Amino acid sequence: MSNIDHLKQQAAARALEFVGNGMRLGLGSGSTSEAFINLLGARVRGGLDVVGVPTSERTAQLARSLGIVLGDLNDLAPLDLCIDGADESDYNLDLIKGGGGALLREKIVAASAKRMIVMIHGPKLVEKMGAFPLPIEVIEFGHVETARRIQAVAAELGYGTPAVKLRHKGDAVYKTDSNNVIYDVAFGPVIAETEKLATALSCVPGVVDHGLYIGIAKTLIVARPEGIEVRERG
User: Which residues are annotated binding-site positions?
Assistant: First the structure.
């Protein structure tokens, strides 16, 4: 196991401490979330009674393979907890998510939970976000024109003309579980007014949603070699 994988395991184990019997859980996507789901599956086999709402088809497949009962968000909301990873977090617990492509369903599930707990390892906690390219989910129809509008919005807000790159998987255009495409926008580590940028991007015709999670996360678990830090939104 690599050092990073070990830190992900530690963050996942700490997140599991928040889970209680009878809870309705949002189950995130990505490698850290998968570490958590594997630990959760062991607890379920030991008698823990929970029901989960997956944020991706991959998460659903993993959870079912481990015997975790899954349900429909429409029937289970509000959820007690949503537990997920992130690509970046600032010190206000605002996030960039979507590197794995599940940002839309992840955000819907997180917004449907009483509390979102986020697991990261140390380098992902940053003063200003944007070193990780911001994923933006876009409807396929007219997506090239939508990308131009995204770049124009960035320029209007003082971010210059960041590269706006259509995501591929191999030689094919990447498609989300909702059959949309993703553009990754290379702002660089300069995103300042996160809420203003999030609002502006949401207003672009053709944008389904973006990977800025503003005011959603309540608890951040940061795993470092020297130990675990738990940060709460003030």
Answer: 29-32, 84-87, 97-100, 124
Query: Which residue has 């700490």 as its token pair?
Result: 14
Is residue 129 in a domain? no
Residue 184: give the domain boundaries.
134-208
Total tally of structural domains belonging to the chain = 2
Give yes or no: residues 70 and 32 share one domain: yes
Determine the 3-state secondary structure of 155 from DSSP.
helix
Burial zone of 180 (CB within 10 Å; 0-12 exposed, 13-18 middle, 19+ buried): buried
> Are residues 23 and 97 both part of a single domain?
yes
Binding residues for substrate: 29-32, 84-87, 97-100, 124
120 and 139 co-located in one domain: no
> Measured between alpha carbons, how far is 15 from 39 in angstroms, rounded to an integer?
10
User: Looking at the structure, do residues 112 and 141 belong to the same domain, yes or no?
Assistant: no
Q: Which residues contact 170 (CB under 8 A, 6 or more apart)?
A: none
Enumerate long-range contacts of 156-160, CB under 8 Å, 24 or more apart: 156/200, 157/193, 157/196, 157/197, 157/200, 159/187, 159/190, 159/191, 159/197
Catalytic residues: 106
Taking the whole predicted model, whether its pTM rises above 0.70 is answered as: yes
Q: Residue 109 domain-assigned?
A: yes
pLDDT tens digits, residue range 55-76?
999 999 999 999 999 999 999 9
Locate 18 and state its tokens: 């928040």
